[in-house]
Design brief:
Helices cover 72% and strands 0% of the residues. The protein is an all-alpha fold. 28% of the residues are buried.
Length: 151
């Protein structure tokens, strides 16, 4: 648990620092940053999903730990969609992110709202609540991927 607390503290510090300096010197750095943040998010989200879908045994302590990480990480990638990050670099982001910014931001806000509900459910230790919240959160992820991520 101590290791998780240290990891979360480090992630929080990184998030605060990156939010303050949302744009890196090179767009490629922001692209790698957001991809790394999405990778961390996907790892913990997938683990909760595996529990929700009965693919791994439910572990309330592990669910709460995943929730702790998601509570910090879910906002990180969105600080790195700045100018220039639509060109160059290895990205699957569609140009629509920068062309339809209001739609992208709406999807982001919806995902963050649903992720908050999932975090609350996971910390409650109630598997039925996790299942319901996971399903809704997964829908928001899919919607954004369908609209704004290349296959």
């Amino acid at each position: 648990m101590k290791k998780l607390a240290v990891t979360l503290a480090a992630l929080t510090a990184i998030a605060a620092a990156h939010s303050a300096f949302a744009q890196s010197a090179k767009p490629e750095d922001d692209i790698r940053y957001r991809q790394a943040a999405f990778t961390v998010m996907a790892k913990h989200f997938s683990h909760l999903g595996a529990m929700a879908n009965g693919k791994v045994p439910f572990d309330a302590k592990a669910a709460a730990a995943d929730a702790d990480v998601l509570a910090v990480v879910d906002k990180l990638p969105f600080t790195a969609f700045g100018p220039g990050t639509d060109k160059g670099g290895d990205t699957k982001a569609k140009p629509e992110i920068w062309q339809k910014t209001a739609d992208f931001n709406q999807d982001r806000d919806h995902m963050e709202t649903e992720m908050g509900k999932l975090v609350t459910a996971a910390k409650s230790g109630n598997l039925d609540a996790i299942k319901a919240a996971f399903g809704q959160t997964a829908k928001t992820c899919k919607s954004c991927h369908d609209s704004f991520k290349q296959k």
